[in-house]
Amino acid sequence: MNATEGLYPFNLTPEQEERARELHESSIIIDFLFQGPLSPKAIPDAVSEDIREACEPYREDPWTYSAMPSKIIHDMAARGEISEFKDEWYRSGITAGNRQLDVSSVDKILISMGDIQRQFDANDWLVKAVTAEQIRAAKASGLKAGIVTAQETDGLGKNLELLEAMYNFGLRVLQLTYNNQNYIASGCAEEANGGVSKFGMRFISKMNELGILVDTSHCGKQTTLDACRLSTAPVIASHTGVENIYPHMRCKSDEEFKAIAATGGVIGVFAMPWFVHGDPNDTTIEHVLDHMDYLVRLVGVDHVGIGTDWPMSDVAWSLVYFKEHIAPRIGFAKGDGPSTETVKGLEKYSYFINFTRGLVARGYSDEDVRKMMGENWLCVFEAVCG
């Protein structure tokens, strides 16, 4: 990759460019919803076609067919067959990003635990981070850190012992619900806006006891407010946007943001083009930065971070299939992403320096840039997880 590839035209001066480069290289950078390091634009076309051929026999089962490409990609990366897996992560400058468990069923929990552990076992440059100090150590040693997280709780049922077992595996961030209703709370796609259940109160208490961050990203408004009231530890939204900028169900209100900040929590802004701007085909990193600016003005720079959630470690044809056949089944309106659109300036994770460059362009100090690029996440992670 040449020195200017992927650089968004912020019209920085040479001095600003050098400052942004030095900041990016020296800072601890954390993407708290990191679907990378690969993306459709980073995966070779030949690999994409091989994966399509391998998946074709499973086309009659939409869930399996949709999930297989990502699993195959991670298997190939673990075997060292996709060099871009490491290359893209290092080019991005990201110090730590989450590695995501599937908690939709007990079977999926076990399978995804094995898949995630294989990533750590197969790559000597990738370490499982369960404390903030391990993230700092990774940065100092030129390594990358993976934080084990999950976005749903359905597979746990009401089994708090299983939650503890997942903590012992390394789980440190858990979202209460994904769009819909479960035993714990109501998601953002539920019209009833029911909030946290009685069992959910016990569940949050157990998370606090263990040291697992309470994530409210896909939660409904009342659930978010209840979680902030009930939790004795900081609450986060790892990946969301500002409702007052773009009124999507996945964005949150000022009331929710203030409640999260009041717990000492952090709000991560996502880079999903359907959720931050009205035209997903013309969404730029400037639109993402607009959401960050708004939050800084509303709750202060100490409570703002990044949780891109896009692009996926997947192939383009699979993402199109997901949008058409899977997304409507998990709470998204028909045609309402995710698909192949990307934010201009973040088509690949190796372009992540555009966040640092954009914050410099908007006049933030070095200290504030470092906070939003990762130090805020590091602080809340340390406060809850150690």
From TrEMBL:
Q: For this chain's UniProt record, which GO biological process terms are given?
A: proteolysis
Q: Which InterPro entries match?
A: Metal_Hydrolase, Pept_M19
In Swiss-Prot or TrEMBL terms, this protein is called Dipeptidase
MF annotations from Gene Ontology? metallodipeptidase activity
**TM segments?**
none
Per the UniProt record, one Pfam family is Peptidase_M19
